[in-house]
Design a protein that fits this description.
The chain is an alpha+beta fold. A hairpin with a 4-residue loop joins strand 6 and strand 7. Helix 3 packs across helix 6 and helix 5 packs across helix 7. It is globular, with a radius of gyration of 18 Å. The two termini are 22 Å apart.
C-alpha cells in the first residue's frame, strides 16, 4: 500500500508511450499511446502505480466492466488510496477500533465510489469541453453521469504560456459535482496527470493522485459507519 511520495513525478516516464515522442534508445519509431490489453490488464501490468487500485476493482465487482465494456476510466493511483486508508485508520485509532485493509471494506462501498471514476463510452481529451474554474459560467466543462449515475464534471483547462492566456498546455480535470449541478466552484476536483491512454476497450486518464479517493466526500464516514 505504501508508495513513494514522488509517485506523481514518475508518470511521464512510466507512460512514455502516450507522449508521442521518439524512443532514442531503440529504433521503435513514434509511440502512439495505444495498448493491446484491456483496461483491467493495463492497470494490472503497472503495479507500481495501480496495485492497490486493482485490489479495489476486484473487491468492487467491477473487474468485468473494465475488461469487456467500452468505458473511460479516470484511474486514481495508489497514492490516493494510501491517503484515504491512512485517514480511515487514523480516525479508527482515535475511536479505539481496529485498523482496516482494502479487503476489510465491503465491496458495495468500494463500487459506490469507484463507479464515480468510470464513464460509458470513449472520451479523449478532444471530446471534452473546456472548463475555467474562475469563469465557470463561460466555460463550464460538461456534467456527465458516471457509471452508476453520480454526476461528475469533466473539463479541459487551457493553460497560459509566457504570460499569454490559453496557449499553454491543456489538462483534463475531473470534479465531483453530485447534486450541485451549477456550483462547479465548490466541487471537489482533481487534475489528470497522463491523458489519452488507449487500452483495447476504452480510454484511461491517469489522475495525479493529489486528492483522497472519492475526493474525501463522505467515503471515510460511510466506511466507519458500516465496518465495526
Amino acid at each position: 500500500m505504501k508508495k513513494n511520495p514522488l509517485i506523481v513525478c514518475l508518470f511521464a516516464l512510466l507512460f512514455l508511450a502516450a507522449c508521442n515522442k521518439k524512443d532514442y534508445f531503440r529504433n521503435t519509431g513514434l509511440q502512439s499511446g495505444v495498448f493491446k490489453e484491456n483496461i483491467y490488464e493495463f492497470l494490472q501490468q503497472r503495479p507500481f502505480l495501480f496495485d492497490s487500485l486493482v485490489q479495489v476493482i476486484d473487491r468492487s465487482g467491477m473487474k468485468e466492466i473494465l475488461q469487456k465494456e467500452t468505458v473511460t476510466f479516470f484511474a486514481p493511483p495508489d497514492q490516493s488510496l494510501m491517503f484515504t486508508m491512512n485517514a480511515i485508520n487514523g480516525s479508527r485509532y482515535a475511536q479505539g477500533k481496529d485498523s482496516l485493509r482494502i479487503a476489510d471494506i465491503p465491496g458495495d462501498i468500494w463500487r459506490r465510489y469507484l463507479s464515480h471514476y468510470i464513464f460509458k463510452g470513449r472520451y479523449m481529451m478532444n471530446d471534452i469541453s473546456r472548463v475555467d474554474f474562475a469563469r465557470a459560467a463561460l466555460y463550464p466543462g460538461q456534467n456527465i453521469e458516471s457509471y452508476d449515475g453520480f454526476i461528475m464534471n469533466m473539463g479541459v483547462v487551457y493553460g497560459a504560456y509566457s504570460g499569454t492566456q490559453d496557449v499553454g498546455p491543456r489538462t483534463i480535470w475531473l470534479s465531483a459535482v453530485g447534486s450541485n449541478f451549477a456550483d462547479l466552484a465548490r466541487a471537489l476536483t482533481e487534475q489528470v496527470a497522463t491523458s489519452n491512454l488507449q487500452p483495447q476497450n476504452g480510454v484511461v486518464h491517469a489522475l495525479a493522485g493529489t486528492a483522497f479517493f472519492a475526493y474525501g466526500s463522505d467515503f471515510i464516514a460511510v466506511v466507519n459507519d458500516n465496518v465495526p
